[in-house]
Amino acid sequence: MIATGDADSAGAFLTAEWRDLVLVNFEAPAALLAPLVPRGTKLDRHRGIAFVSLVGFRFLNTRVLGCRVPGHVDFDEVNLRFYVRRELDGEERRAVTFVKEVVPRRLIASLARAAYNEPYVALPMHSEVRTGDADASTRARYVWRSGAGEHQIEVLTRSEFRLPAPGSDEAFITEHYWGYTRQRDGGTIEYRVTHPTWRLRQAATASVEGDMAAFYGPEWHEVLSAPPVSAYLAEGSAVTVFRPRRIT
Hints:
seven-stranded mixed β-barrel; Acetoacetate decarboxylase-like; mainly beta
């Protein structure tokens, strides 16, 4: 159960728009993810596969507790995430949990670590989203730099935006409305995220560049150096992230 009240009554912590989401997806061994699963949740699989996703997107019109922070309203994020679930009173809460999240502003990283203990780091970043005039193709890429060099994820799409079919891989990757994060004492917090279903475009090509093993750890080399099993560009929408609650 949730330790203090229902998550729906927790109140909004952050509102924003998440736009131009690049989702590059890989298959990972359960043994790699098991030690990272927050207590009180279970690793979630789809078609028997444990997916991990490299996700880049644009934060726009960001407000924390209803307030705009100058210089921190529009920015990029890249994260490495995987999928967990929790059953509560007959309800299955399908969720994400993060391995590492990258933003370009130190204040944002510090606030997320303080409020949620999310694994944020602040690094130089930039993004580019271009739509071709002739064929309506879209190329989207997110770039960040660390001590290990430059890293990049990119997709090229040529298909039309469409809603994911129920039960599809696309729905599994994008339809998550909860987050779980391990705390310093080993406990877990839970928070709710709301947004409408996102329209997606299948990627015609997808690439991951840079020394990802140096950035995420050598245990990630085999997973992130393999060809992606899928990649999408999501249109995005307005989102609300609610305040966290500790679970027991």
